[in-house]
């Protein structure tokens, strides 16, 4: 290859490289320019879409020459006119509540409960404006949803409002709402008048969708959420079914439902059907504690009702309850509404309904200070159960007198293999002294339902809501003497003084009574639990609960300590106990059936051990 050929190839390579570089540069510049054009186009498109959205919301879009309506049209021209009608608002009120209605969907727009305030001292809206949807869906030659239409108001007063959705054929759908003085009930009649020629004869169901956003109304989010839920009731049942207590939950019910309740801790929105709902889909979702709108939960009920338009004019009666979860108020409806209040199972609930609530209401007639009422209730309860308390102390005192002999038996039989012998020796000792092994436990067990009843009653008692006492500004919520500003796991963001004092008195009482426990090493764990763990656990539990509950436990501990001192000093003294034990020891002993069965079991076990030993030989 000569020199000229080499130079030629080099020149060709340089030219090709230069051309490629030039083309690449041009392409890059074109892409950058196109990107700028695309970016401008996207911005213009988003602006146009935003303008279209606004115009669609107003029901109009612009073309080059004319304005065109985007509202959906219906076969019935009167429905189209109703769709485009102007929304208006009307109010019904009585001494209990004020309800605002909107003609858009002929439904409640807001519900304000009188005589109550939210925790921030503002008016108490169980349903805030535009936070409820009450839709009726039916097929009338085309799918109709009442929320899409503005109804015509044909009657309005302070207590009654009637709204109609007319059809071209002369028929109409009507919603009638009525309030009565002194009641939390809103009566609703859904009517279909002259619709037999409009709604096909084969339509046998209509759908009702009711969704409500319940706002936060109380001081403590956790406590309010814990006691909020959805309830639904089947006719003839003893109590309603509960769901979504403090947690998100959905449930489908394929059987007839009489009523259901969107229940906040102290207030409820209840819907009842005179003819029962054929089926229902319920859903509850809770908002986070830091929700900026301060909403508590979103509740929805998708309902289906039997419907027979061929029968002529159809009237479907419903009833709404918007009001407090007051036991006596709910009970007056005779529909088991009062069962939504969480007062416990059959025994605990029975004590709450027939003992605690009547006593609380009776004292409330004469005393305005609820802290004093709780004090008097605690004293009354302690007096009523004092015979059981004295019996328990007598058994404990006898055990204390026998403590040296019991300790001797523990030393005599230290091994587990001698457990049967030790138990038999202790039974003989108890029998000789006239002590029942269950004598100290049984009276305490009988008091437990009362403690549980109080645990249920105070957080659910609306009478304690926003009642001040000492440093507590709301007995239905936690009291706080120190707000941390941060959330501490298990403890929360505050320190409750009532809960702290309750735990201290619990510790002191446990120390007072721990000396009566046996020195048996097996009892060491129980001593630690009663003296240390239980007070600490109760403090963490009660720190976020109702201050009335912590206050009650505090009073109960103080009164119990005073009772213990008095009974030990004047009623169950050591000399009296010894004298009684001596008298019992001199009487003929009659073994209880429980002791007889225990001794028989011991004998059988000893016989089996002997047979096993013989077999080994």
Show the helix and strand layout:
Layout: H1 3-57, E1 60-62, E2 67-69, H2 77-83, E3 89-93, E4 97-102, E5 107-117, E6 123-127, E7 132-139, E8 143-145, E9 152-156, E10 160-166, E11 172-179, E12 185-193, E13 205-215, H3 221-226, E14 229-233, E15 241-243, E16 249-253, E17 257-263, E18 267-277, E19 279-286, E20 295-306, E21 314-324, H4 327-331, H5 346-364, H6 370-384, H7 386-401, H8 403-412, H9 419-433, H10 441-460, E22 482-488, E23 492-495, H11 497-514, H12 524-542, H13 547-571, H14 574-586, H15 593-616
Antiparallel strand pairs: 1-2, 3-4, 4-5, 5-6, 7-8, 7-13, 9-10, 10-11, 11-12, 12-21, 13-20, 14-15, 14-17, 16-19, 17-18, 18-21, 19-20, 22-23
Helix pairs in contact: 5-6, 5-10, 6-13, 7-10, 7-14, 8-9, 11-12, 11-13
Tag the structure with descriptive keywords.
alpha+beta, 617 residues, Beta-galactosidase, Chain A, domain 5, elongated, 43% helix, 23 strands, six-stranded antiparallel β-sheet, nine-stranded antiparallel β-sheet
Overview of the structural elements:
With about 625 residues, the protein is α+β, with helices and mostly antiparallel strands. Among the domains are: about 260 residues, Distorted Sandwich (Beta-galactosidase, Chain A, domain 5), CATH 2.70.98; about 160 residues, no CATH class. It has 15 helices and 23 strands. It has a nine-stranded antiparallel beta sheet with strand order 9-10-11-12-21-18-17-14-15, with helices on one face. A hairpin with a 3-residue loop joins strand 17 and strand 18. The protein starts with a helix and ends with a helix.
